[in-house]
Amino acid sequence: MAATDDVADLAPDERAALEALLFRMADDEFVLAERYTEWQVRAPTLESDLALANIAQDELGHARLWYDALQGLGYSEPELVWERNPADFRHSILVELPFTGGDWADPIVRSYLYDEAEHLRLQALEDAPVRALADPIGKVQREEEYHREHAQSWLERLCDDAEGREAVEAAVGRLFGPALTLFVPGEHEATVERMGLRSESLADQREQWLDVVVPFLGSLGVEVPFGPEEDVDDLLPERVGRDGNHTDDWPALHEELTRTYRELGRSDARRLRGERRE
Amino acid sequence: MDLATVESRAEPRAFSPKHDLPEEYRTGATRMLQFHANSEIMGAYLEKPFIRQSPSLDRKLAFSAKVQDEIGHGQLLYRAAEALGVKTREQMLDELANGEGKFLNCFHYEMTDWWETPMIAFFVDGAAMKRQATLKNSSWEPYAHAMDKICFEEGFHIKHGEDVLRELATGSKREQKLLQEAFEEWWPRILQFFGPTDDQSTHHDFMAKVGLKTASNDELRQAFLNSYVPKAEKYGLEIPDEPRIHYDEDAGGYVLEEDDLDWEEFFAITKNDYEPGLNQIDTRAAAQEAVEWVRTSLDASDSPAAAAAGGD
Fold first, then answer.
1. Which residue from A47, A51, A266 is facing B55, i.e. has the nearest CB?
2. What is the reported pLDDT for B125?
3. Which residues between 102 and 141 in chain A have a beta carbon less than 8 angstroms from any beta carbon of chain B?
4. Is residue A278 in a domain?
5. Would you say residue A277 lies in a domain?
6. Residue of A44, A53, A82 with shortest CB distance to B294
């Protein structure tokens, strides 16, 4: 497919595939950021509080960037976030799982597993033949680089001591399966492949990811719940998120984060003013 | 340096860690900075739920950044306090957790709804700005220096707060009504931000003489009323009948009947004896306790990676 900066050139199925790809990225970043902000004013030190807040805002900024791209395709912010049915969100379940109070190893492990995958995902999109997809990659990739360093240095630091390593191992045990859902294809996968939007398939990205995270965690003395003889697909949780089938934590979170929007009756006000709705 | 020398040399930014300062000065400056730093942290606690409750992506980003800024201000101010050599940051954070640490009256109240947010983000931050601008002239140089950055960032917070206020004030009838109700609830607390009149203020004289305070409570309250009563009215907010306030032509400003305010509640708050505030303190203490294991783990492993993970 030749490079295009005009999505009007796309056939309907191609456009749907592009949208699906943007929704996956936007929703991942949005929900992850939403969860990270739970650690604001709760992190172990003032410095770690500031650092995680930075990362949350980066992810939220990226979400906005991808949602902006979707707005370029005709959606409004209320349609994309505030009034969208939670079952229409396409993020991986890794990002929606709640944190347990005080379990600082969880956001660190989650960030590590996510950001290594995100790095590969972005790399595979760098040369995508659609500008809405390829243009923002450089900026996002630079920020994600810092997130990976942050997660790695925290993992090293925590694993320096027995209690910390135990907490990391428990988080890895809990989050490894959910992290695999990052690579689960969505409804339009065949079209995405045919259009050549990605230079590496999701299956290849998952292989590369396993080749990075398993040895790194191993080097820290953290046991990964996945051996060389096993089929990694067996570790996939029942609900993966990518098909809209989420854990119960997601609709609850969506309900909570849209509370003010609903209380203010913003959607009714817009309807009365005759603004565009789906 | 003895106290008389300190008083004679108490110019803006006159003293830094290289000076040998008397204990009275160091204790007074520590008390003030600790109060200020604690207030930044407790303010962040109050506003944090509104990151999640923001009704748009832009607001969510702004609220997350604001809460982060407040934590950053706390960090700067604790550092300026530590430089006085009286208390370590750990001591001050522990005191905040165990209920000894004091902080601003307004942050002892609960904030549950979005339409309350401009009460802090516009009015309280606006009041804080009046005080903070004068602290750029503090005789303790690290304090004045911290205020340069803090005032710069607070300027953005107030703009953001004013934007939320404007949006609600020009919104639906219901939004306007909820905003007015929030204003009526918060207005007396905001007026108490500057504390009691100067002749009732215990520490004022000393702090003024050594250049740690460069404006009195009365002057600051006056400056706040003169600029914020018109701002409230501009957004259609009605100033409540009580506490009574009237414009005095001769004085060229608004005059507040201070006796109309609930000083009993105020003084309970200043002693950390007010129930909602105690809740905030305890919630924060529990959250800090839950991550104590990480701090212990960090102390145990002082690796080079530790510095990088701090993200400082």
1. A266
2. 97
3. 102, 104
4. no
5. no
6. A44
- Name the domain count of chain A: 1
- Dig out the tokens for B159 from the structure: 């703009």
Task: Supply the pLDDT for residue A271.
Answer: 53
Cis (ω within 30 of 0) for the bond into A107?
no
Contact at 8 Å (CB) between A70 and B92? no
Under the banding of pLDDT at 50, 70 and 90, the label for residue A84 is very high
Selected for mutation to probe chain B from A260, A261, A271, A273 (highest B CB count within 10 Å) is A260
Cβ <8 Å between B51 and A40: yes
Verify whether the Cβ–Cβ distance A67 to B57 is below 8 Å. Answer: yes
In A, minimum Cα distance to B54 occurs at A260
Let me know if residue A135 belongs to a domain.
yes
Task: Report CB contact under 8 Å: A44, B291.
Answer: yes
- Provide the CATH topology of domain B3-301: Ferritin (1.20.1260)
In which domain, by residue range, is A105 found? 7-272
Closest residue by Cα to residue B51 from A231, A154, A259, A83: A259
Closest of A115, A103, A113, A110 to residue A43, by C-alpha: A103
DSSP letter assigned to residue A182: G
Q: Please state which of the ranges A41-45, A57-61, A131-135 shows the lowest mean pLDDT.
A: A131-135
Query: What are the residue ranges in chain B where pLDDT is below 50?
Result: 303-312
List the domain boundaries for chain B.
Answer: 3-301
Q: Nearest Cα to B153, choosing from B170, B139, B173, B132?
A: B132
Using 50, 70 and 90 to split pLDDT, how confident is the model at A273?
A: low
Bridge partner list, B248: B253
Task: Specify the pLDDT at position A265.
Answer: 82
- A185 occurs within a structural domain: yes
Contact across the interface for A104 and B294, Cβ inside 8 Å:
yes
Check which CATH number belongs to the domain holding A102 and give it.
1.20.1260.10
A90 to chain B, any CB pair closer than 8 A? The answer is no
Cross-chain residue pair B301–A260, CB shorter than 8 Å: no
Binned at pLDDT 50, 70 and 90, residue A277 comes out as very low
> What pLDDT does A266 receive?
74
